[in-house]
Amino acid sequence: MQKVYSVTDLGPGDGGKGGFVHALACRFKPNYIVKEGGAQGSHGVRSSNGESFNFAQWGCGTFEGVPTYLSERIVITPHGLKNEASALQHLGIYNPWAMLYCHPNCLCATPYHQVWSQNYELSLGKHQHGTIGTGVGKAYREFMEDPDSALFARELTDKEVVLRKLNRLREKVTALFTDFPCDSLSDGDLEIFCKNMTLLLDDEVLFNIVDEFYDVGAKLQFLLLEDILKQDGILISERSHGVLTDAESALKPHVSALRTLPEFSEKMYRNAGFDGKIVNLGVHRAYEIRHGAGPLPSRDDELREKMLPGSHKDTNRWQGEVRVGAFDVRLLYYAIKTCGGARAFDGLALSWFDQILLQGRWDFCTDYRYEGTLLSRDVKISADLLNSVEAILTSYELEPGLSNKSSGYIFDYCADVLSEHVDIPLRLLSIGATERDKIFK
Q: Which helix (DSSP H) or strand (DSSP E) does residue 126 occupy?
């Protein structure tokens, strides 16, 4: 393998990774899309052929015929794989499984991890940490605490092993919530909790899960990364989550269980024997978006009403309210710093600039004020601190008629503005939904 393109979300997620991975796949025709992270939030792809899909475990090069490799750094959900395969078949992809390869040691999240994740979030009441609700984080944390309890992809066709491990997990989760004070829950949350407890106690559900996992395991094609790297060509690493949810470096408690920094992706490739070029691209929206709990100092509800009609993001119980704000230079600086600084990236990919073009104005949060005083950039920020600061804003009135200029002109304009705030050069700009709307430089 000659080169790896590694795509990192420099926010809390929802940065537009899917569209950029698809555009890279169209341009470079990679051998595989390598998935890392968790089978959680979806990555939306809209193609110029009219195809549209939100990918979770298949890679965002699927429409282009690029196979997906589920690396050892992704936590998969077998039940989710089955559902996604069915949805892809309905779109006209005859055999999605033929385009999917898997490392034997992929950790599996199960419906019981999902129940655990959801019930725990319900128990927090108004003090939510934020979760996708699929159980990926719980599966990873449980694996770290009790490795023998973990279920791996290579074990899915061994019904005896799957039954034993699922039953052990079921008993643990049941014990955790049997005496939970249900009167503390709202009517809606109580309904979810009771449904989850019913699932836990149903033996038939357990045996159905075992059968379903067996069917999925029988379809998986196992492959080692070392063998992939022996081939000639290019890989694209597509990661879930964003840097601002990294398990250790981000703003606790609003973090995932997984490490999301590019250094961990690079370590995986180097350990597998890759000594070629890794091109690190940092992805960010042209404004801030946060789906779920966590600080967003530049929050602007008026801007939300303007931006979200085109963002395909809805409020749900687990990710919570979708919030929008001005492009936050301070948050981006923090994210870049946690990755090792600007030198960790070869370029920036900026998404959803078409929405800024429609507004005719580009808002930036350049600094914070805390208790009336400008907050020094040397101050270590935290979630609590960011919930108490005042955002200092500045706006750029866009050049009249900018949206009618050539794509190269728009790119240069955007790059010039960004260079005043970010030390990473702009390499990709999105001014629309499809791969034809992605400008490369």
A: none
83 and 204 both lie in a single domain: no
Cβ contact 262:242 at 8 Å: no
- Co-location of 355 and 418 in the same domain: yes
- List phi, psi (to 5°) of 162: -60, -45
Residues 6+ apart with CB under 8 A from 405: 399, 413
One domain for residues 162 and 40: no
Distance CA 283, CA 163 (A): 41
Last residue of a domain, one of 203, 219, 235: 219
Query: Do 243 and 337 fall within a single domain?
Result: yes
Angle of CA points 364, 319, 255, to nearest 5°: 75
Mean pLDDT by 10 residues, the chain (441 residues): 95 93 98 91 90 95 98 96 96 96 98 92 69 83 93 98 97 92 82 91 96 98 97 95 92 89 97 97 96 89 78 56 92 96 97 95 96 91 94 95 95 97 97 97 92
CB-CB contact of 10 with 332 (8 Å): yes
Question: Minimal CA–CA distance to 309: which of 359, 240, 361?
Answer: 359
- Structural element, H or E, at residue 57: none
Report CA torsion sign: 40, 90, 18, 275. positive
Query: Which runs of consecutive H residues, i.e. helices, occur in 222-360?
Result: 225-228, 262-271, 301-307, 329-338, 353-359
Question: What is the extent of the structural domain holding 244?
Answer: 3-100+224-440
Q: Number of folded domains in the chain?
A: 2
* C-alpha distance from residue 331 to each of 221, 234, 236, 381 (Å): 40, 32, 26, 9
Closest CA to 221 of 134, 95, 109: 95
The span from the CA of 53 to the CA of 18, in Å, is: 10
Query: What beta strand segments (E) does 322-385 contain?
Result: 322-325, 327-328, 347-351, 361-370, 373-374
Both 389 and 341 in one domain: the answer is: yes
Q: Answer for the pair 226, 272: CB distance below 8 angstroms, yes or no.
A: yes
Q: In 3-state terms, what secondary structure has residue 259?
A: coil
